[in-house]
Amino acid sequence: xxxxxxxxxxxxxxxxxxxxxxxxxxxxxxxxxxxxxxxxxxxxxxxxxxxxxxxxxxxxxxxxxxxxxxxxxxxxxxxxxxxxxxxxxxxxxxxxxxxxxxxxxxxxxxxxxxxxxxxxxxxxxxxxxxxxxxxxxxxxxxxxxxxxxxxxxxxxxxxxxxxxxxxxxxxxxxxxxxxxxxxxxxxxxxxxxxxxxxxxxxxxxxxxxxxxxxxxxxxxxxxxxxxxxxxxxxxxxxxxxxxxxxxxxxxxxxxxxxxxxxxxxxxxxxxxxxxxxxxxxxxxxxxxxxxxxxxxxxxxxxxxxxxxxxxxxxxxxxxxxxxxxxxxxxxxxxxxxxxxxxxxxxxxxxxxxxxxxxxxxxxxxxxxxxxxxxxxxxxxxxxxxxxxxxxxxxxxxxxxxxxxxxxxxxxxxxxxxxxxxxxxxxxxxxxxxxxxxxxxxxxxxxxxxxxxxxxxxxxxxxxxxxxxxxxxxxxxxxxxxxxxxxxxxxxxxxxxxxxxxxxxxxxxxxxxxxxx
Length: 516
Known about the structure:
Layout: H1 4-46, H2 49-66, H3 73-79, H4 85-116, H5 121-129, H6 131-137, H7 144-148, H8 152-177, H9 181-201, H10 213-234, H11 236-244, H12 247-260, H13 262-281, H14 286-313, H15 315-323, H16 330-347, H17 351-356, H18 360-385, H19 387-413, H20 417-443, H21 452-480, H22 488-515
């Protein structure tokens, strides 16, 4: 009994650190998305879809080059709980070589790429953006410790400050120039600011070394495969749209993808950054890892799924209101793409398990499998149905990913559908009730007509209805289930209670001091 207490205490401590870290990462991505969303609103009114499409195409081309040298060096350091200075120096040196090589190849490819897409403007944009991978490679590798040690309050600052600086520069330049160069220069400024901040925030000073490259590459070799498949899954749609349609179509699809994936990108992605280092600390204990996986699944469904559904159900109101009438073509795309975004929230925390258990090849198999399903459907959809066909291809491919992920988790950890259903049935039921309530409201809207005021009223009433119905239904079902503490709702409420107590303690101390 006594021997078990340290283990239980350690597990509880790790759980609290992961929960606090997840809160910081969700906060980071929420702040980042707010900044990005507000900047998109401003920039969408200063620039035209073709400007966004041109830069998106250039970034896709850069990603195509970079993907072949993406070794997941930081992931290797997080997975290796005993990493030493020589590992960090080697990872930084490999990253520097990767950034330099990528920059050279991108610069050399600028003219041929512009000729291929028959867009002379693309050449200069690609040439300037070739500096981006070089800047990224100069970042201080010591900042990996922010994630590895779950000191994610520092990660918050490290990520958000350069983001704010880059956006401020982009908007200022857009006001002055009113063309795509504002997006290009703003991107480079943000990356340069992150380099400087990385050395300000961490005392580690990397040195050139390749002493442990074989050890690092043992973990990282499958990351290359994952990177190539991920590029095919996420960026080839941009390339094919450019070939079959035009830059304006690229811009419309790009913005629609960003909005529809907000739940996965801004809620799931930050939580994944916490799950991987947390899973890595308990990867030797299959039972503990299984329990952590099921708990994380419940929390992800509770938080992310209603957001994804809400984004799709309200698109017709906020797109013309926030982005303007030029972007109304994005509405039907968002309504389809949120299916893909919602399903990503149900399967996105599988890859951290693969990495934590050093089974990166399984992550590679999953990414390649999605590409095999996705690419033929993408081609067929674009040829016959245009942008809507591309959106449908994304949604169907994500269904295949979900079933593949569940199969692997059953094989690795013994996780069953019944386990996942017990962890998420309340949230799923509440989400279904929310959908019904919103559809009823939309069939009997409180106001009628056109214009910004009408859209604002309809958006506010729809969002309010969704939040109230979902929250009330989920809490009621949780209460009727005898308020289980080991549930997604229990973890969230417990964390909120602890957070409030921590905030009250300084206030109580200050009040006591004044009384004395």
